[in-house]
C-alpha cells in the first residue's frame, strides 16, 4: 500500500513540474465519451504512460490520458480512459486516477460509464443517475494498510452519491433536454457479462443497472473526501432482460450513438456541480 502512495506522489510531482493548475472537479470518461475533451480549453495533457508506474488501459475504446483545463470557467481534470479490475490490476491501481485527481486538488468528481440495464423502464441509450451502488461483489479498493493522508480507515458510505450534486445533475439534464432516470448501480468484476440467473438475483437485490467500473472509484473518492456523482449510459439491456446475446461491439455502438447527447449532459453537469461549494467541516 505504501507502494501505491509512493506511486501517487511520484505522479503528482511529475505533473507539478509541468503545471500548478488546480482542478476543482474531476471527470472520469467512460466508453465512447473520449470526444468530451473537445468541450474543454486544455492547458496541459499527460499520457498515463508518461506517469511513473501509472496503470494503462488495455481495452479498446479506452484511451489513457489526463487533461487539465477549463470547461466554461470551471477548472477540471478530465481522466480520458480508465483501467478495470478485470484487466488484472489491483483495485488500488484501478482507483489511482481518482486519487491522483484528489491530490491535484479536485474536490468533486463526476464518474461516467456504460452499463447494462436491469430495470425494464430503461432502454439502450437511456441515461441513469446513480443514486447508490452495490459493490459487495468486488474487492474494496481500501483493502490493505490505510493511506491516512487520503482518508480514514473506516469511511462512512451512507451517502456516496452527494445529495446536492444529484439535484444539480437533474437540473443539468433538464437544461440539456435529456430524460434522466435514477437508480442503483451494481459492479461486477467482469470481464464476462452476467448470466440471466445473476441478473435475476441482482434485480432482487435492488439493482437497476450493472457494470464493471465506477463503484470502486466512488468508494475511493468518498474515502478521500470528494463529493461524488455518477451517470450511466445504458448501452444494452442486461442478460435475460433482452433475448439478444451481449457484445462489447453493441456497448460501443450505443455509446457512440448517444455520445453527443451524453457530452451535452456532461457539459451541463460540469457547469452545475462546478458552481457548488465545498462540503462542510466534517468532510475534511
Ligand atoms: N453488464 C456488465 N457490464 C456492462 C454491461 C452489462 O450488460 N453493459 C455495459 N457494461
TrEMBL record:
Pathway: Purine metabolism; purine nucleoside salvage. One of its GO terms (cellular component) is cytoplasm. GO terms for biological process: nucleoside metabolic process. It catalyses: a purine 2'-deoxy-D-ribonucleoside + phosphate = a purine nucleobase + 2-deoxy-alpha-D-ribose 1-phosphate. Keywords: Glycosyltransferase, Transferase. Residues 25-269 form the Nucleoside phosphorylase domain. It comes from the Bacteria. SUPFAM superfamilies: Purine and uridine phosphorylases. Phosphate binds at residues 31, 62, 82-84, 114, 213. Gene3D superfamilies: Nucleoside phosphorylase domain. Belongs to the PNP/MTAP phosphorylase family. The purine nucleoside phosphorylases catalyze the phosphorolytic breakdown of the N-glycosidic bond in the beta-(deoxy)ribonucleoside molecules, with the formation of the corresponding free purine bases and pentose-1-phosphate. Cleaves guanosine, inosine, 2'-deoxyguanosine and 2'-deoxyinosine. This is Purine nucleoside phosphorylase. It comes from Candidatus Aphodoplasma excrementigallinarum.
Amino acid at each position: 500500500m505504501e507502494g501505491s502512495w509512493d506511486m501517487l506522489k511520484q505522479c503528482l510531482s511529475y505533473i507539478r513540474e509541468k503545471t500548478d493548475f488546480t482542478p476543482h472537479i474531476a471527470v472520469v470518461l467512460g466508453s465512447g465519451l473520449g470526444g468530451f475533451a473537445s468541450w474543454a480549453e486544455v492547458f496541459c495533457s499527460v499520457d498515463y504512460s508518461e506517469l511513473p508506474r501509472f496503470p494503462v488501459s488495455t481495452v479498446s475504446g479506452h484511451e489513457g490520458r489526463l487533461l487539465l483545463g477549463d470547461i466554461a470557467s470551471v477548472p477540471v481534470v478530465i481522466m480520458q480512459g480508465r483501467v478495470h479490475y478485470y484487466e488484472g490490476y489491483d483495485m488500488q491501481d484501478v482507483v489511482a486516477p481518482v486519487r491522483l485527481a484528489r491530490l491535484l486538488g479536485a474536490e468533486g468528481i463526476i464518474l461516467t460509464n456504460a452499463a447494462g440495464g436491469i430495470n425494464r423502464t430503461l432502454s439502450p441509450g437511456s441515461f441513469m443517475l446513480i443514486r447508490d451502488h452495490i459493490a459487495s461483489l468486488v474487492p474494496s479498493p481500501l483493502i490493505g494498510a490505510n493511506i491516512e493522508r487520503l482518508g480514514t480507515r473506516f469511511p462512512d458510505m451512507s451517502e456516496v452519491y452527494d445529495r446536492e450534486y444529484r439535484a444539480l445533475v437533474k437540473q443539468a439534464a433538464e437544461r440539456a433536454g435529456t430524460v434522466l432516470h435514477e437508480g442503483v448501480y451494481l459492479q461486477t468484476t467482469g470481464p464476462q457479462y452476467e448470466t440471466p440467473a445473476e441478473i435475476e438475483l441482482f434485480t432482487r437485490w435492488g439493482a437497476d443497472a450493472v457494470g464493471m467500473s465506477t463503484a470502486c472509484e466512488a468508494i475511493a473518492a468518498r474515502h478521500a473526501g470528494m463529493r461524488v456523482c455518477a451517470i450511466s449510459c445504458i448501452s444494452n439491456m442486461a442478460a435475460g432482460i433482452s433475448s439478444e446475446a451481449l457484445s462489447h461491439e453493441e456497448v460501443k455502438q450505443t455509446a457512440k450513438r448517444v455520445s453527443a447527447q451524453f457530452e451535452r449532459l456532461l457539459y451541463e453537469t460540469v457547469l452545475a456541480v462546478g458552481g457548488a461549494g465545498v462540503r462542510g467541516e466534517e468532510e475534511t
